């Protein structure tokens, strides 16, 4: 992967030279679409034999990406928490997503709005409802 870059030489003439690009040049693999990414994580958290360690590992990996997970991924992760009877992890997922949204104050309320039916169905309260967001 090379990119043409225009520079001024010592003579003042404009010259072209190629510089390597750092983005994805090292990989010859298929580039994953957003839909494939979402589907991969939904499938991961939907595995019936997923254990608590795999749940935490998956969430740590997911939160490590430069993105806020889509509601359908979070839905699948919260359902995995319910299957494992792990309320603490469910609350931690919501806290991590709120933290991940950072200064974008409209993202977290949107996620909670989208997840509200799932949260109600699974009996999971938000950190705000539990009053632990103020600690």
UniProtKB/TrEMBL annotation:
Gene3D superfamilies membership: Cytochrome c oxidase, subunit Va/VI
Example GO biological process: mitochondrial electron transport, cytochrome c to oxygen
CDD domains named in the record: Cyt_c_Oxidase_Va
Chief site of localization: mitochondrion
Pfam families registered for this protein in UniProt: COX5A
Protein keywords: Acetylation, Heme, Iron, Membrane, Metal-binding, Mitochondrion, Mitochondrion inner membrane, Phosphoprotein, Transit peptide, Ubl conjugation
GO MF, one example: metal ion binding
Highest taxon listed in the record's lineage: Eukaryota
Compartments it resides in: Mitochondrion inner membrane
Coiled coil residues, start to end: none
InterPro entries in alphabetical order: Cyt_c_oxidase_su5A/6, Cyt_c_oxidase_su5A/6_sf
The protein's annotated pathway: Energy metabolism; oxidative phosphorylation
Membrane topology of this protein: Peripheral membrane protein
One GO cellular component term noted in the UniProt record for this chain: mitochondrial inner membrane
Assembly notes: Component of the cytochrome c oxidase (complex IV, CIV), a multisubunit enzyme composed of a catalytic core of 3 subunits and several supernumerary subunits. The complex exists as a monomer or a dimer and forms supercomplexes (SCs) in the inner mitochondrial membrane with ubiquinol-cytochrome c oxidoreductase (cytochrome b-c1 complex, complex III, CIII).
PANTHER family according to UniProt: CYTOCHROME C OXIDASE POLYPEPTIDE (PTHR14200), CYTOCHROME C OXIDASE SUBUNIT 5A, MITOCHONDRIAL (PTHR14200:SF17)
Role according to the record: Component of the cytochrome c oxidase, the last enzyme in the mitochondrial electron transport chain which drives oxidative phosphorylation. The respiratory chain contains 3 multisubunit complexes succinate dehydrogenase (complex II, CII), ubiquinol-cytochrome c oxidoreductase (cytochrome b-c1 complex, complex III, CIII) and cytochrome c oxidase (complex IV, CIV), that cooperate to transfer electrons derived from NADH and succinate to molecular oxygen, creating an electrochemical gradient over the inner membrane that drives transmembrane transport and the ATP synthase.
The family this protein is said to belong to: Belongs to the cytochrome c oxidase subunit 5A family.
Protein name: Cytochrome c oxidase subunit 5A, mitochondrial
Gene: COX5A
């Amino acid at each position: 992967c090379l990119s043409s870059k225009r520079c001024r030489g010592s003579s003042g003439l404009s010259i072209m030279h190629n510089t390597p690009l750092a983005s994805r040049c090292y990989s010859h693999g298929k580039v994953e679409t957003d839909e494939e990414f979402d589907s991969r994580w939904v499938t991961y958290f939907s595995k019936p034999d997923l254990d608590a360690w795999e749940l935490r590992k998956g969430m740590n990996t997911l939160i490590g990406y430069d993105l806020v997970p889509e509601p359908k991924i979070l839905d699948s992760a919260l359902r995995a928490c319910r299957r494992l009877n792990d309320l603490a992890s469910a609350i931690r997922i919501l806290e991590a997503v709120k933290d991940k949204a950072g200064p974008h104050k409209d993202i977290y309320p949107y996620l909670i709005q989208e997840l509200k039916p799932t949260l109600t169905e699974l009996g999971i309260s938000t950190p705000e409802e539990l009053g632990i967001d103020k600690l």
